[in-house]
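Changelog-adjacent note: as of this version, every example in the card shows the full chain rather than a window. The one below runs 369 residues end to end.
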Amino acid sequence: MDSAWYAVRNVDEIPSPALLVYPERIERNFAAMIRIAGDVSRLRPHIKTHKLPELVRRQVELGITKVKCATIAEAEMAVLAGAEDVLLACQPVGPNCDRLVELAVRHPGARLSAVLDNEHSARALSDSALKASIRIGAWMDLDIGQHRTGVEPGDAAVELYQLIAKLPGLEPRGLHAYDGHLHDPDLSARKEACDAAFAPVQAVRQILLALGLPVPAVVAGGTPTFPIHAQRSDVELSPGTCVLWDAGYAKKLPDLVFEPAAVVLTRVVSKPTPERVCLDLGHKAVASEMQQPRVVFLNLPRANPVAHNEEHLVVEGVDASALSIGDAIYGIPWHVCPTVALHQEVWVVREGLASTRWTVTARARRIQI
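Full-length structure tokens:
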């Protein structure tokens, strides 16, 4: 295990459960992301995965100055870390309209914007912007098959975009189309479904342009369809999970070349039976919204999860006699994005040594605004 890439020489100094990140691997993932995109100007990575200002700053150093985010805290973190163009991909409602506008007022050098999919939200955001005597960016969110948010491409979408272009507090930035429902392991099948889902987006854009409306850009896809949308020269690309990668996408998307760069550290806390051990990796330390396995263990590969609670994960199918209380176990989360949000800090592992900690700044719901 000492020669394994994930092993930490000073692991005895790290309380468990913990989340470890590996910058050398993150660098290779950034390089692969840029290589697939072909040009850094096409990238608008989603930062909800890592929520770390250190990684936003590194993206900016690489020339990636546009980002997408899920919360206003993430937007604020991104601006403070040097991002120049920040898109809030979760439509603001209630007080969040004023919060987004306040962020824009405090940072006039940054381009802030949000997605919208209905008249009420468009008018509310415009009103908030007008109260502050500014205009704020607005993207029309299109539903291309996930049926979570967005307006269906067609007449209603054209009417909404016309309203966005007319409202005095809004500046139309273009179209947003997320296809998170498309993750077929077969690349050809995924591409066929992606192209079919995206065709209505292109049709709506042409109608809007024919009407003389500005449609500066289209933001398309997530990580699973990233290499497919990269073949379209006129879209911005917003992968996110690929920065840290996880076991779920690694299994579902064998064609993608990213490396796992985030690992959960847990320890054996009990050995109830000869084939059962209990680990300190509960719901509060690894994302639990999916079915098991919620983590793929690197140095306990035959472990079969049988119980998961707030602070404990019980596994069977192991030789408990070969393990000691306190042994360190490393695993790759099945879903890394919500796993990161469970940790106040990450331990940064370079050349097998964890000597730095980064605060997961944007796991908070509020930073200042």
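Structural remarks: The chain has a mean pLDDT of 97.
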